[in-house]
Design the sequence.
């Protein structure tokens, strides 16, 4: 069994109170949905994985990617789904290697959405509306900007995908634009999720 989108959101909010972490989960959710559509895969499954990937992070930061197994197993969710969550921390907090296209995509876009989020927040409109590939490439190259977002993980991820860096960046930006409100990037006046 795999959590429905509704169940995933409830679970996320139960374990995650920090607004910024909820926002990150929704950003990864909408980007995963976008890539699922691009690859003709299941957007609900990919989005749900995105929503839940950091489920154990707020409450168990020292057991990130580990505690999640217990939480989701107790609820009766599939081991394959749990494995997919754990694989996003490959080489950082887990030794589960991303194997499926879904896992490789999550691994690639997790840190990337962090850079885009930070880049939008320093814009006057705090929005992704007019954000361009060129701006992302500039921020990406500047290692001091959003320094916590590990570029080497993103690069390793892109190497696993059948896309080049520009394609991955473009698709990620577009998915966030398409669902800007859910991603919390519609600008200051817009309502939050
Ligand atoms: Fe994580
Ligand atoms: Fe994350």
Sequence:
């Amino acid at each position: 069994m795999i959590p429905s989108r509704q169940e995933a959101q409830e679970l996320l909010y139960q374990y995650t109170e920090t607004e910024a972490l909820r926002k990150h989960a929704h950003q990864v959710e909408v980007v995963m949905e976008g890539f699922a559509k691009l690859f003709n895969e299941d957007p609900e499954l990919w989005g749900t994985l995105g929503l839940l990937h950091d489920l154990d992070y707020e409450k168990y930061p020292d057991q990130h990617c580990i505690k999640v197994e217990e939480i989701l197993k107790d609820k009766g969710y599939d081991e394959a789904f749990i494995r997919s969550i754990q694989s996003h921390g490959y080489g950082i907090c887990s030794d589960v290697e991303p194997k499926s296209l879904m896992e490789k995509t999550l691994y690639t876009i997790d840190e990337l959405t962090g850079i885009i989020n930070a880049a939008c927040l320093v814009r006057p409109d705090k929005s992704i509306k007019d954000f361009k590939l060129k701006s992302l490439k500039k921020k990406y190259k500047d290692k001091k900007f959003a320094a916590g977002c590990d570029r080497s993980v993103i690069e390793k991820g892109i190497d696993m995908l059948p896309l080049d860096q520009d394609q991955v960046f473009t698709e990620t930006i577009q998915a966030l634009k398409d669902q800007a409100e859910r991603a919390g990037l519609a600008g200051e006046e817009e309502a939050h999720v």
Observations:
- DSSP finds nine helices and no strands in the chain.
- The CA atoms of residues 3 and 77 lie 7 Å apart.
